[in-house]
Each structure stands twice: as C-alpha cells, then as structure tokens.
Amino acid sequence: MKLKIINCKKGDKTKYYEKISNSKFFQKDKDLGYPLIFCIAAVIGFNDKNYQEIKKKEWVIRTEYIDSNSNLKTLLQSIAIVAKTSIEILDEEGDIYKIAEGYANGGIKKLYSMVSNINGPDFDKEIELQMNNIMKKSK
C-alpha cells in the first residue's frame, strides 16, 4: 500500500507549525500535533475562502494520523464536499487531501495569529464555531 502524505509549504514547519504546537491550546492534544494543526488551519482557510495552492513543497504530514481519527477525517471530507459542491469527491481521497492542503496553506498564518493573540476559552469557542459552520454546510 502506498504511503499517503499531505504536502506542506516550504518554511511553514518552523515558522508556524512548531510554534503553534507549543502554544497552550495545543498542549492538551499533543498526540495529534501537526495533523490537528493542519486540519484547523484548513477550517480557517476554508471559512475565509482563502485557498492557496502550495508551490514549494518542503515537508509532509502522513495521512494515517488523520485517517485514524474519524473526527478529523470527517472534517476534511466536509470541507471537500462543500468546496466541490458534490458528494462524489469522497470517492477521490487524494483530491480531498489536495483541497485540504490549499485551505490549510491559506489558513495557517491566521491560525498562528489567533494562537498568539487569543488565550483560553475564547480560542476554543472560535475554532469550534468555525468547525460547526463547515459541518452544517456539508449536510
């Protein structure tokens, strides 16, 4: 079986992902780490309609960490369904991750800013609202 990966933009690992993973909010979900950060960045990018294709790919996140978490997988599937306005996208797992890559790339800077500027329950509530918004749209 071929290893499935998510591509990430050159420079983003040290500039954003590492710093976000050390924030107070993400300390409680350390096991999910970068896959969780990727998914939340995709939510933010999607809600902001900020899709940015990755031109320079430097590092990857293995999809098995997302595939093993039904909540994260469903979240990315919901983004893909709404983005493509078709449930048939679920037949193309690679396309689901490609769509998520673009939205995560578009949302990672804002997530970094949010983590840097919002503490405690306000951040939790904001992310939860954005995730719920996507789930409602995909139904």
What is the residue-averaged pLDDT? 81
Order of helices and strands: EHHHEHHHH
Distance between the termini: 32 Å
Strand content: 5-15%
Q: Can you list the strand order of the major beta sheet?
A: 1-2
Beta-strand segment tally: 2
Radius of gyration: 14 Å
Count of individual domains: 1
Tally of DSSP helical segments? 7
Q: Which residues sit in consecutive blocks of at least 5 with pLDDT less than 50?
A: none
* Secondary-structure content class: mainly alpha
- Summarize the amount of helix as a percent range: 55-70%
In one word, what is the shape?
globular
**Biggest sheet record:** 2 strands, antiparallel
Write out key terms for the chains shown.
2 strands; 7 helices; mainly alpha; 139 residues; single chain; two-stranded antiparallel sheet
What does this structure look like?
- With 139 residues, the protein is mainly alpha-helical.
- Helix content is 65%, strand content 8%.
- The protein has one domain.
- The protein has helices at residues 12-21, 24-27, 33-47, 64-67, 70-84, 93-117, 121-137; strands spanning 5-9, 57-62.
- A two-stranded antiparallel sheet has the order 1-2.
Outline of the structure:
This protein has seven helices and two strands. The protein has 139 residues and is mainly α.
Give a topology summary.
Elements: E1 5-9, H1 12-21, H2 24-27, H3 33-47, E2 57-62, H4 64-67, H5 70-84, H6 93-117, H7 121-137
Antiparallel strand pairs: 1-2
